[in-house]
Design a protein that fits this description.
Length: 237
């Protein structure tokens, strides 16, 4: 004997079942959102620490470039006005030594690389922050190319010239200054260098390269400032 279906009971159970399913979806979505929020906060804190380190390095690089630009301008100014004899040998040697180094921006990027390579960039709620992080990556790549070009010009032009003129050991490596024991011999060497048109052309080229690198990395620093500002805002919310 077949039993009758209690349609009233079925009709009452359907909303309960539907509600239970929807509640389960809502709870799962809520848990997922909590997990994403926790992961976002983790990335924001780690990004902040990473960019603070990188900001400090970039500021140090830029300060050194400012010193280089000042030293190269001073050398060119003194050479053009035949004022070398009024400046001490130590001061001239120090100024010339600024022409040799090149600074490389070597940022710490473990967190940023993980964020991008893992596909978790979308976890960051701020669209502006995501945009700035991608812009920073592009600018940083271009800056590294520019720095390598700067270093190449030193290796191919300045260093060979100083080696050819027996001056690299004196100006590039201070521990070898005893090779020129008397101030008179070193002054003569410096005067010859700074009166040589080829050396002055190299100084002008170094000044141009350093200035270009400095000006190019200014917007890189600006983006880092903006990134840190947005991160602080996101962490405060």
């Amino acid at each position: 004997m077949s039993s009758k279906i209690n349609w009233w009971k079925v009709l009452l159970e359907i909303p309960v079942i539907v509600f239970s399913i929807l509640l389960a979806f809502v709870l799962n979505a809520w848990r997922d959102r909590l997990n994403e929020t926790a992961l976002e906060q983790h990335y924001l804190k780690e990004l902040k620490n990473e960019f603070l380190i990188n900001q400090s390095e970039l500021e140090s690089d830029q300060q050194f470039r400012q010193d280089q630009i000042g030293a190269l301008n001073t050398l060119i100014f003194l050479s053009a006005r035949d004022s070398l004899d009024y400046v001490s040998v130590d001061s001239l040697s120090r100024l010339i030594s600024y022409a040799l180094p090149s600074r490389f921006y070597s940022p710490t990027e473990a967190v940023l690389n993980d964020l991008i390579s893992s596909g978790n960039l979308g976890i960051l709620q701020s669209q502006k922050l995501r945009k700035l992080l991608l812009e920073y990556s592009v600018f940083k790549s271009k800056a590294l190319i520019l720095e390598r070009t700067e270093r190449k010009s030193i290796e191919e032009q300045l260093e060979p010239y100083l080696i050819e003129n027996g001056a690299l050991m004196s100006f590039g490596r201070r521990k070898y200054r005893h090779l020129f024991p008397s101030e008179g011999s070193e002054r003569q060497r410096i005067n010859r260098l700074l009166s040589d048109r080829k050396f002055l052309d190299i100084l002008y080229l170094r000044l141009d390269r350093v200035t270009v690198a400095y000006n190019f990395e200014v917007p890189l620093g600006t983006r880092m400032d903006e990134i840190l500002q947005i991160i602080d805002q996101e962490l405060d919310e």
